[in-house]
Design goal:
Layout lengths: L1 H19 L6 E4 L9 E5 L5 E5 L3 H14 L3 E7 L3 E7 L5 E8 L5 E6 L6 H18 L9
Antiparallel strand pairs: 1-2, 2-3, 3-7, 4-5, 5-6, 6-7
Helix pairs in contact: 2-3
Length: 148
């Protein structure tokens, strides 16, 4: 009995050291009710960054990201849209910056990254990515909509 108790304590302490020492990265999948985009979103490690891989066209992801920020009443501070990468910066009423970076990975894959900084609120970035996915769903964004 004493051996089992000590063993459990040692395992628990080791797990804590691993996680806080970056020996492991905790990952949380973000899921939303979405039928059109068939993507995967992941929030991992310290900070508030969320990265979502979506099977949508780059242009659709950019348009829907802008609409999502507008739907959440975020104020646009910067907008730099290029051929395969878009960088958008928004702030809320408390002046918390939210960066949205959209990148074309292929004709069929687009990544959407939402980041509120290392100490930014995780809930904010998760809410923004879920709103973007909702906007993609509302727009019916899918690879079948266009021919490249």
């Amino acid at each position: 009995m004493v051996f089992t108790s000590k063993f459990v304590q040692i395992i628990a302490i080791g797990a804590i050291f691993l996680c806080f020492g970056n020996g492991c990265t905790t990952a949380t999948l973000i899921s939303g009710a979405s039928s059109a985009p068939s993507g995967v979103s992941q929030a991992s490690g310290p900070g508030s960054r969320v990265i979502s891989y979506q099977a949508v066209h780059f242009e659709d992801a950019v348009e829907c990201s802008i609409r999502a920020a507008e739907a959440l009443s975020l104020e646009n501070k910067e907008k730099d849209i290029k051929e395969i990468r878009a960088e958008l910066r928004y702030v809320d009423e408390k002046d918390q910056a939210v960066d949205i970076i959209i990148e074309r990975r292929s004709a069929a894959i687009t990544t959407i990254q939402v980041d509120a900084g290392f100490s930014g609120p995780q809930g904010l970035t998760r809410l923004v990515i879920l709103q973007i996915i909702e906007e993609l769903d509302k727009a019916g964004a899918s690879l079948d909509d266009r021919s490249d």
